[in-house]
């Protein structure tokens, strides 16, 4: 098997200048939710407020109380303006149901836009993480090549004397140190990959939490 050409100082300097100065995807200054917050129309803001309001127990309790008061007042002959079977109340409930459907559809369009933005962010983050990991792997490969070259140089410098026990011990010590250096390089590669994967997952979780719509009513 032919031996690869040893890396010269010029090749090493060229490789170091080609390394990225930082991550392929820097951290954004603000979340997508903060960026589009000032671009919402009046209808979208109103739809969000109504959706948050109608999706609360306060709205359910108030609506049940309203229908109970309507039923009590219209059960009396003196104050009845919508006697049983409460035709006017049924008309109001039908109109409310129609408006609720339209409002929820408008709010659902906003949720679809948020989901699409989060999916695009996940894709960009994964691509950037792949670029960073490939750079780390290339650095580790070059390190292993230099360690192999150092191992060959160390073996060439140690005199090959079969009868000299001291020389054999020195060669064994050098080989042990080289193997330990190679193990350290592999461990550093594994730790770098684990840190990169952890940072990617943390960025995705943070962006997903920041991108979720606020479930509380806006003031």
Structure summary:
Helices cover 76% and strands 0% of the residues. By secondary structure, the protein is mostly helical.
Structure description:
- The chain is rod-shaped and about 115 Å long.
- Helices cover 76% and strands 0% of the residues.
- It is mainly alpha-helical.
- The longest helix is centred in the middle third of the chain and has 71 residues, at 87-157.
- 4% of the residues are buried.
- It has six helices and no strands.
Task: List its salient traits.
219 residues; mainly alpha; 0% strand; disordered C terminus
Q: Average pLDDT, to the nearest integer?
A: 75
Q: Give a count of the beta strands, DSSP E runs of length 2 or more.
A: 0
What fraction strand? Answer: under 5%
Task: Sum up the overall morphology in one term.
Answer: rod-shaped
Say what oligomer this is: single chain
Topology (SSEs and partners):
Elements: H1 9-18, H2 32-37, H3 42-54, H4 57-75, H5 87-157, H6 165-211
């Amino acid at each position: 098997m032919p031996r690869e050409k040893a890396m010269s100082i010029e090749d090493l300097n060229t490789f170091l200048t080609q390394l990225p100065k930082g991550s392929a995807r820097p951290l954004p200054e603000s979340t997508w939710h903060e960026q589009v917050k000032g671009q919402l129309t009046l209808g979208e803001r109103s739809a969000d407020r109504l959706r948050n309001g109608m999706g609360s127990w306060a709205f359910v309790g108030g609506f049940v109380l309203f229908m109970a008061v309507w039923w009590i007042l219209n059960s009396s002959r003196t104050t009845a303006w919508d006697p049983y079977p409460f035709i006017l109340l049924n008309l109001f409930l039908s109109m409310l149901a129609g408006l609720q459907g339209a409002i929820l559809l408008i709010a659902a369009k906003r949720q679809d836009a948020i989901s699409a933005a989060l999916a695009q962010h996940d894709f960009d983050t994964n691509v950037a993480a792949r670029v960073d990991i490939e750079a780390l792997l290339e650095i580790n490969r070059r390190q292993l090549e230099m360690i192999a070259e150092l191992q060959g140089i160390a073996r060439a410098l140690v005199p090959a004397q079969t009868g000299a026990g001291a020389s054999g011990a020195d060669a064994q010590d050098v080989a042990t140190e080289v193997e330990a250096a190679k193990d350290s390089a592999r461990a550093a590669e594994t730790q770098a990959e684990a840190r990169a994967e952890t940072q990617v997952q943390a960025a995705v979780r943070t962006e997903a939490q920041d991108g979720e719509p606020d479930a509380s009513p806006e003031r």
